[in-house]
Amino acid sequence: MVEEAFVIKFTEHIKPIIEEIEPSFFEITVAMAFTWFAQQQVDIAVIEVGLGGRLDSTNIITPEVAVITNISYDHMNMLGNTLQEITGEKAGIIKKNIPVVVGETLPETEPVFIQKVKELHAPLHIANEERWVADWQQQSHLLQVTVADKHNDERKTYHLDISGLYQTKNLLTVLETVHILTRQQWKIEEKHLEHALAHVKKLTGLHGRWEVIHQNPHTVLDVGHNEDGIKQITEQMEHCVYQKLHIVIGMVKDKDITKVLSLLPQNAHYYFTKAQIPRALPEIELAQKASEFGLHGKTFSTVNEALQQAADHAHAEDMILVCGSVFVVGEVEASQVKW
Cβ of 71: how many Cβ atoms within 10 Å? Predict the structure, then answer.
């Protein structure tokens, strides 16, 4: 954890530069993080791109390996309206002679990657062409996944504490990335990999990825908020057993709301709400738009109130899903719901 004294000293030091070039808050925090990493002499840092890639402030680094998970429609107002345009922005993090791992490709995206790595002589590794998921099982809050190597059919089983089925795709990406790092002489033993995958939430603080927070009723948080994220959620729900489905949902103004709403089930009871941030879409406006897609329910001004109403009306055999925004899920984590 970064100490408050470091934040204050760093801010005072760069205040003249802030006043001169007027960077965004994200750009300031990126500079702060990189400064802290340098002072601490970290062995390796995992840097997540803020938005897009090509023009993102994190893109000043030269990584050991670049990783791109999957491409879907999101932030179109900044990244482009087609998958090819969005892929071009994402591929902007690829550097000359630096290996890149792509989680999966689509017919629209693969040519963009191939052209980019050809220009930069960057080795391309497509994760789902190296390994495949031979089997998976959900056990309580865990996901057990058996992965097979496509070259020799060698199989290994991993236990993940993030149980969404879409994590099987992320697992393949992780395994290929670790494989490349070990070839670059980074010492990552199998026991370290297994431990990390089994303790993702504790080690990273990552929450809200098909996270079960209560049983009876089965209550799940998922930060899915765009077309692809909602598709993953609906596919996951096909494997769930419940009597009635209750969905607590809130979204932000700059998302493609219509695509998300068109994918959600009509047979659920909805609790429309909003996170307490300026970007939040008003719950009444969300409910009005949802009604055009046959989605009906009540509106609530706070996430806590919406979830409490869902908990009050759901029976033990029902399911409650909270989704639509990272900010909505974040407020659930701090809510005081009485079950």
Answer: 25
Distance from C-alpha of 49 to C-alpha of 65, rounded to nearest angstrom:
13
**Beta carbons of 162 and 209 less than 8 angstroms apart:** yes
Instruction: Report CA Rg, the chain.
Output: 21
Amino acid (one-letter) located at 30: V
State whether residue 173 is helix, strand or coil.
helix
Residues 6+ apart with CB under 8 A from 61: 34, 47
**Digitized pLDDT (tens) for each residue of the chain, 339 residues in all:** 789 999 999 999 999 999 999 999 999 999 999 999 999 999 999 999 988 889 999 999 999 999 999 887 666 667 788 889 999 999 999 999 999 999 989 899 999 999 999 999 999 999 999 999 999 998 778 899 999 999 999 999 999 999 888 899 999 999 999 999 999 999 999 999 999 999 999 999 888 989 999 999 999 999 998 888 899 899 999 989 999 999 999 999 988 899 999 999 999 999 999 999 999 999 999 999 999 999 999 999 999 999 999 999 999 999 999 999 999 999 997 677 888
Closest CA to 217 of 323, 336, 313: 313
Give the pair of three-digit tokens for residue 45: 């840092």
d(C-alpha 230, C-alpha 224), whole Å: 6
Q: How far apart are CA 272 and CA 300, in angstroms?
A: 6
Q: Answer whether 162's CB lies under 8 Å from 199's CB.
A: no
Cα 64 from Cα 94, distance rounded (Å):
11
d(C-alpha 91, C-alpha 224), whole Å:
23
Sheet holding 211-214, edge to edge: 211-214, 218-221, 319-323, 245-249, 269-272, 297-299
Q: Kindly list the strands in the beta sheet with 66-68, ordered across the sheet, starting from the edge strand earlier in the chain.
A: 66-68, 100-102, 124-126
Give the residue among 304, 232, 310, 308 at the shortest CA–CA distance from 269: 310
